[in-house]
Amino acid sequence: MRSLGTVLKKLTKKGNIGLIASVALLTVVMSLAYPNFLTLFNIEITAMGFIQEALMALGMTLVIISGGIDLSVAAVLPFTAIIVGLLLKTSLGVWPSIAIALGVAVLIGFINALMINKLRVFPFIATLATATMLRGVALVITEGATISGFPTAFYEIGHGRVYGIPVPVIIFLVLAVLFALLLKNHSYFQQVYFVGGNAKAAQLSGIKVNRLRYVIYGISAFMAGLAGIITASQYVSASTGFGLNSDMRVITSVIIGGASLSGGKGSIGGTIWGVIFLAIISNAFVQSGAPTYWQDVVYGGMLLAAVFLEEYLRARGRKAKMKSWREFLTSG
């Protein structure tokens, strides 16, 4: 119970107050403008419409805190969906197919980490190259066609309910609590903050930075693969069109949730609030009937604003530190 209470405190910690206030204000405005906004039906639609990004954002939080970036998640999602779709057409069965597809996703994450660790490729370039190749391989495998005709048991993953709550939402909530507890209480996962703050210093202090990157990028790819499997189950099909631009939405959620692109900063609680904020904006476009292609414009603008704010605060912090040093040196 104490651990769960700690997680709840992390969700409402001081650093998230501004974002929580924004979510509350946006909710009030939307509920006044559209009376059905706070109905259970619309809340469920909003949650299910952003569940893939929410799952991937959990893994992306670890990556960004460690000072990296993973642009391959938007390609791992459809690739995993296609792999599981092809396996389901065989006699393997639902759960072995899912296990193999998730294993492939984790392997992709390891490959990303391998390029970063051994070839010294920047995470941006390494994961962008992976994304491009995966999109191409997916098109070659499917020849641009959609895969369908899945077993009923697979359908239940994306459409099933437990006590009235959609299974994908339960999966996300369980994993969100798990990730938050690991970052808060597990010394191994807390190392991502040290690596993100200064990888060389972390290495010198005894942290196995390269090994940690394999774990982090493996988890990120696993979460993208899980999102792909849930997407395939929801649509009862697999297509190369799944997950387009989802990487930018995921990264935006994490950054506006308080993580720093330079690493060393971030939290699962902040990421969850970032996901909720973007999900509400997405639903606002649907409710208002505005063209949905403006969503990415808004998301991109918010990402830029968050980065500019971070740079401004960092510059102001540097100036304050220099001023304090000058005062100290001249005080004698």
List the helices and strands and how they pair.
Layout lengths: L1 H10 L5 H17 L6 H10 L1 H15 L7 H16 L5 H24 L5 H20 L4 E2 L3 H8 L1 E2 L2 E2 H19 L1 H11 L1 H6 L4 H27 L1 E2 L7 H11 L11 H21 L6 H36 L2
Antiparallel strand pairs: 1-4, 2-3
Structural description of this entry:
The radius of gyration is 21 Å and the shape is globular. Helices cover 76% and strands 2% of the residues. Helix 4 (51-65) crosses helix 13. It starts with a helix and ends with a helix. It has a two-stranded antiparallel sheet. It has a single domain (2-295), classed as ABC transporter involved in vitamin B12 uptake, BtuC. The chain has 332 residues and is mainly α. It is built from 15 helices and four strands. Strand 2 (161-162) and strand 3 form a beta hairpin.
CATH architecture: Orthogonal Bundle
Strand content: under 5%
| Low-pLDDT stretches | none
Give me the number of helical elements.
15
The total tally of domains equals 1
Mean pLDDT: 86
Return the CATH topology: ABC transporter involved in vitamin B12 uptake, BtuC
**Sheet with the most strands: spatial strand order:** 1-4
Report the structural category.
Answer: mainly alpha
